[in-house]
Amino acid sequence: MRALEDWYWWFVARRSAALRFLDDYLPRDGTSRILDAGCGTGALLDALRAQPGREAVGLDFAEAALQFCRERGYERLVRGDLEALPFAEARFDAVTALDVIEHVPDDAAAAREIARALKPGGILVASVPAYPFLWSGHDVALHHQRRYYRAEMVRLLENAGLRVERSTYLLTALFPVAAVQRLLARLFRRAARAGLPPVPAWLNRALIALQHAELSLSRRVNLPWGLTIMVVARKPGES
Asked: Who's near 194: CB < 8 A, 6+ residues apart?
């Protein structure tokens, strides 16, 4: 992940989507405190740190991930579990959880903890892998617990007391090809491995441009299918 996330199209597209939805739904007046839950090796923290008015804290369960963040020069780091966040209630203006909730055994507890940690009026920007029928060795290799339908993800967050304001599939144009690959891998019982194949630089740039175009569309309408689900949910009340 550390070797790929700064430039590989999939990581770039996911991070760009999260930042854009944060800008769309999080007020810019004053300083916003953001928790990057499941911060991984720190690329989103880097991007948040570069934005004026953003004060980010990184949380991850893996000490190795936090060490990579320290190597980026990041110090606001906490080792912790999404099912029991080590923070006081109503601490954050926003929480990001990019491809994290699917790793947690009790996703309902994780959603409740995120809601607890948000200030009234605060937002969650989260992504999860889409469609249980696409389960394959890719998910096994990445230690996923589950994949989601969009309605299922919306229900999970609403049951935690959050109000979903945007829920869209992403990676829509690539869905048919990727879906066939995942289903064939399962049919032929191929070895578990993450589906992040190497691509030439020109194709990497083209895929980034394609995902940026999809993102622009998804800010106006919820896309009807895709490999990823991204949601924006708000804690009711005024901060």
From this structure: 138, 141, 142
Say which residues have a Cβ less than 8 Å from residue 179's Cβ, sequence separation at least 6: 131, 134, 227
> Residue 194: how many CA atoms within 13 Å on its side-chain side?
9
Record the pTM.
0.92
Amino acid at 145: Q
* CATH number of the domain to which 140 belongs: 3.40.50.150
Partners of 37 in beta bridges: 59
Asked if residue 4 is part of any domain, the answer here is no
What are the pLDDT digits (tens) for 144-161?
999 999 999 999 999 999
pLDDT tens for each residue of 116-144:
999 999 999 999 999 998 888 778 888 89
**Contact indicator for 39, 1 with CB cutoff of 8 Å:** no
Report the SS3 class of residue 32. Answer: strand
Q: Which residues contact 150 (CB under 8 A, 6 or more apart)?
A: 130, 167, 168, 169, 222, 229
Angle 142-139-216 (CA atoms, 0-180°, nearest 5)?
Answer: 90
Burial 128-149 (b: 16+ CB within 10 A, else e): bbbbeebbbbbbeebebebbbe
Evaluate whether residue 31 is within a structural domain. Answer: yes
How many CB atoms neighbour CB 22 within 10 A? 22
**What is the tally of structural domains in the chain?**
1
Provide the pairing of β-strand 118-129 with 228-234.
antiparallel
Does residue 1 sit within a domain? no
